[in-house]
Amino acid sequence: MKEKIIKDIFELIKRVGVKSDTLIRKNQDSILSSSNEHGDVQTRFDLEVNQLIIDEFTRQKLVKRLYSEELEQAILFENSPSNLEVFVDPLDGSKNVLVNGGVGTIFTIVHGEDVLAAAYIYYGLQTILLLAYQEVVEYSLQQGEFVLKKKHELLPKGNVLILGGYHNNYHQKELNILNQLLSTRPAIFYNHAFIVNLHQLITTGGIYIYPQTKAYPSGKLRLCYEAKAAAFIIEKMGGLATDGENRILDKKNKQQDKTPLFLGDKKILQSLFI
Fold first, then answer.
1. Rounded distance, CA 47 to CA 172, Å?
2. In terms of domains, do 131 and 167 share one?
């Protein structure tokens, strides 16, 4: 029963991907002078993709609750056949739309405190769909449908360091960690959109870090909307996701929580924190 519902949710996500790709590519020059509950500037695509996702989940009623980063309260589906819940970031990195940059939609599928599956749609030069359940599978959008591109097994061995935040805002402990990483990982990458960083990590391997900083003492990334999906995917590929003290997937699902995040090569992260 659970496997069938997750399969059905994945099919729903594919439909969202096809429709939102059309919507985003139609017009990329509009921004709203408003913000969501997190204080983030909203483009009209945040609201339109969010509504598209709500409409699809309302039509199917596959899950008990849908949490969206753009909504203050979860949407409850009384007649759902399951107790599953979905957290969604409808358009991660939406300000990138204004500079023709990559954006994406991130889904985390949970049962209680356990993450069962995760997915993202990455709208870049190609539109990529990545589904993670018992395996991690990547698709590309071709002529209106998602076509299998490849299966991901182990995280690639890469030398890239994806560095989040301004390092002059790091505390001394995090600066020490950064210096250790810089001594062996000269290639540095960072994009405003977390989805771009995550796809880079999955494609090339390496380490992503966004620790607590003076500007973000609790961390910058949202636990349920971004960090847990990334953690599930990366750990399925043999990597590790931690906040520096706790495994990300062991943290309680609190809707508004943020977290520091260290993500990627398991051996390297274990050498830093264990």
1. 39
2. no
